[in-house]
Please model this.
Amino acid sequence: MWSILKLNALLPAIIPWIVFFTVHKQKQDEPFFREYFDREYDYIVVGAGSSGPVVANRLSEDPKVKVLLLEAGGYEVYQSEIPMLAARLQLSEYDWQYKTEPQKYACQGMNEHRSNWPRGKILGGCSTMNYMLYVRGNKKDYDIWESYGNYGWDWKGVFPYFVKSEDNRDPAILKNGYHGFNGPLTVSTTHYTTPIGGAFLEAAKLHGYPNIDINGARQTGFAVPQGTVRRGARCSTAKAYLRDYRHRKNLHTVIYAHVTKVIIDDNKRAVGVKFNRRGLDHVVYARREIILSAGSINSPQLLMLSGIGPRYHLESLGIPVVADLPGVGQNLQDHIGVGGLQFHIDAPVSVVQPRVYVAKSFTQWVTLGIGPLTMLGGLDGIGFINTKYANASDDFPDVEIHFIPSCPSSDGGESVRKAMNLKSALFQKVYSPFLYEDTYAYYPVLLRPRSVGWMKLRSANPYDQPIIQPNYLSDPYDAKVLVDSLKISIKMGLSKPFQKFKTRIWSRTWYGCEKYRPYSDEYLECLTRSYTATIYHPVGTAKMGPPTDPLAVVDPELRVYGVKGLRVIDASIMPKIVSGNTNAPIIMIGEKGADLIKGRLYPPNIAPGYAPVPDYLTNPAKEKHAAKGPLSHLGNIFGKFNFLKF
Model:
C-alpha cells in the first residue's frame, strides 16, 4: 500500500517526463533528414549550422527547385533543448572540439595557453549549442561594411532580413517597429531572472544606462535579454527552418555527411561536392550552384582543400591551385571577454548547481517552459557601455557586459572549468575554496577588436583540424579597452543596488597576478591576459569585398572570386565583426544570401522603426498569432505541457 501511495505522489512529476522523452524520440525519428539522396540537385548547401538551413529553406520555397543540405554532424538531442544546459554540449561528439594555437599575449590561465573553440557539429550547428542571445549588432557596423565597397549591405539593406527571419513573441517590443512576427525564428524575452538580475539593471541606471530594447532605435543601454527560445526551449535554425518545413519534398537533408572537396571543372566552375558518409565516399552534382555555409573555420578549410586560397600555402601542401585568393583564412576576428571578475554574496539568490538542477526545475521546464532552466546559458542580463576610448555621445558602444549570476565554482568545477580550459592550479587557488557558494560575475566583452588572426590547413588531409591563430590581445589597445571596462564593472558591481545582498569583491588574488596590487590597472591587465575567453564568435575568414580588395574572397553578392557557381554564405564573409553576438547577423546573412541567389530582394520599403506590427496589438479583438511548431497540433489535447509546443 505504501509503495502505491508513493507512486501516486510521484505521478505528477513522472508522467511529464515519460511523455517528454517519448515525444522527443518520435520527433527525432520523423524523416526530415534522409538516408538516401539523388545524384544531382539544383543547389547543394554545405553545412546545416546557423546559416545553411536558412539558405536551404528559402531556396526550396520554389517547388520546381531541388535542394540538398549536407551536415557533418547528426540530429539534435534533448539536452540541446534546455537553455541552461548550453555549455554541456561542448567537448562532446556534437562539437568539432577545435583549439587555438598557444597564445603569446592572452589565455595565460588556460592549459597550454590555448582557448577551446567549440563549433557545432550537429543540425543547427552553433545555434544548437550557443547561449541563444538575439543581438543584431549596431547599425553602424553594416554602414561600415558598405563603405568598404559592399553595396546593399548597409543597415537599411540588411534590416528587412532581420525582420523577415523573426517571430518575436514579446508584445511590448513588437510595438517599436524594429521587429518581425511572421518569420520562422522564434525570439522571446527571458521570463526568469534572479533577484540580482534586477540589481544589475538598477546599477546600470545609476551609471546613466537606461533599460532598453538593444535591437531597437539605440544600442547603448541594458536589458533583460531576448533569445532564440520558443516556450522556454531552444529554437535553433534546424528547428525553425528545417523541422517546421519537413513536408517539402524538394528539400533533402542528409546528416553525417562530411564534405571533403568541392569539385571544380576545367572551366573553373563548381559542379559538385565529394563527401564521406559513414565510411563511404559519395559525389553529388549541382545544376546551378554550390553554397558553402559551413562556418568561419570549415568554409575556408573546404575552399583551400578544393584549391581555392593562398597559392604559396596550397602549393606547400601539394594542393593544385584553382584560384589564388590570398584572403582565404585571413581576417579572422573573434569577440573575447574577461572572466574572473566575481563578487561574493551572502544571500541564496544566484545560480548554483545543487539548487537549480533539481526535479522541481526540470518539471517546471517540461510542463510550462518556465523556471531557472530557461535562462540563456545561465545569463541574467546584458548591456552595452562606452569605455573612455569610445565617443559617449555616439551610439556606438565598444564593450558588451554579460551579467552571470554564477562563476566557475558554482557548478563545483564540473562543466565551466573544462569548457574554459582553465589550469588546475588556477582553479584550485581561485575557485576551490568557494564551491557551490553564491556569487555573480560581470563579464565584459570587447566588441571591435583590433587584433586580427588567421587560420590555415594543417595538412591536405580533410580530417586534420586546421591551425587556428586568433592573435588575441596582440594589439595593446584591446587590453586597454578591457581594463577600463573592468574598472566600470567593478563600480557597477559594488554599487548600491547590490548592497542588500552584502556584496564584496572576490577575496582570492588571481593566479599569476600576485605581484600586482589587487584591482590596480596592472592587476586588471594581468587578469585580462590570463582569463581571455572566447565568446564563440569567429568571423571574417572568407571576407566580402569589391574586386579592388586584395583580401576579398567573395563579392558583395557572395560569389567566390575566380570560380563560377560557388558562393559562401555564413559568418566568414563578414569584412569586420559586428558589435554584438553574431548568431542573429549570421541568420540575416543566410536570408539575404538566398535572395541574392534568387536575384530578387525582400521588400526594401521596410525601414528601421517602421516594421509592421501584428493585428492583435492594434486590434484587441484579434487573437495573438498561433504558435508554430511540429507538435503544435497536439496542444489542443495536451496544451498545458510545454514540451508539446517545441
